[in-house]
Amino acid sequence: MQSQRTSSYGWPVKPFDQQHPVRGSFGDPRSVFRGAPTMRGLMHSQCACSYHQGIDIAAADGTAVYAVRDGVVRTVTPDWVEVDSAGGSAFQYWHVGATVHVGDHVQAQQDVVGHILKGSKHVHLTELQYGKPVNPLAPGHIGPYEDHTSPTVGELSFRSGDTGAALLPEYVHGSVELVAAASDTPAIPVPGQWNGLPVTPAKLTFRITSFPAGDVAVPETVAMDVTHTLPGTSDMWHTYARGTHMNMVQMGVHRYWYNPGVYLFKLTPGLWNTRQLRDGVYRLTVTAADTAGNHSSGSVVFQVHNRSTWLNN
């Protein structure tokens, strides 16, 4: 757990030197499904899905949003503003009504770039480095920031494919998808209807050991890491497994308010071949961590049966 960390800029809302609630984290799933609100719709329908490219800072509608670094206003739209700063950095402030114009020079913590639009109840902050999103909650970025909550690892499961049937851990064989449910709690409580809703961990790793001896079969491997940057592909399903959806998911034309999101992660980019292991009993252990170093683990015992006579029936 990291309680003391340096920062290079403050918060975009007053007080600048005080931590504010973050209701949406970097890398969270953003998902609008085209299908019906059914398991089939969730698992198979088309989806406008993406990684969340910044953080959502909870604040009241109408709150003044300030530049976090000196810079020049490069973009102004009806609901967001971009300010370019030195060293290849830029910041976007979303869900704000602009009070600046393209070409304006702004000073950090002095100039208002806009006010939070009615109904938004937050400002979305995207930090760019040479055009690529980076995590504002990483050490050395926004501050002050302390996090004393630990992510949790939920159910670990095996599938025959991304939308395939679940497999019994007692009888795992062939090429399978390894899936881990994991989530984190915002560092400080979020007010209003977003209270208690999860955010994504910053990093997920896994290892496989023989059971009960504990010999390493698959060493600690990174499954997902948005501590600093997003995955190399924009395809959310590269990281998340089907069944994942954002907080208050939208399916079809309806958004289902108050319901928490479900975050399921693929532990490997493609199917994992159990034939790399001898038949036997193993333990899969998954560890989830946040940008402050808080972490926890979960595990499941499973059995590999590649040479079982059942495969011929």
Describe this structure as you would to a colleague:
It is a single chain. The chain has 313 residues and is mainly beta. It contains one helix and 24 strands. A hairpin with a 5-residue loop joins β23 (280-289) and β24 (295-304). It is elongated, with a radius of gyration of 22 Å. The termini are far apart. The relative contact order is 0.19.
Write the layout of secondary structure elements.
Layout: E1 22-24, E2 29-33, H1 39-44, E3 47-51, E4 55-58, E5 64-66, E6 71-76, E7 80-84, E8 89-94, E9 96-98, E10 105-106, E11 112-116, E12 122-129, E13 132-134, E14 152-159, E15 166-167, E16 175-183, E17 203-210, E18 216-225, E19 250-251, E20 254-255, E21 264-266, E22 272-273, E23 280-289, E24 295-304
Parallel strand pairs: 2-19
Antiparallel strand pairs: 1-4, 2-3, 4-12, 5-11, 6-7, 6-10, 7-8, 8-12, 9-11, 12-13, 14-15, 14-16, 16-21, 16-22, 17-18, 17-23, 19-20, 23-24
What are the main properties of this structure?
eight-stranded antiparallel sheet; 40% strand; elongated; 313 residues; mainly beta; single chain
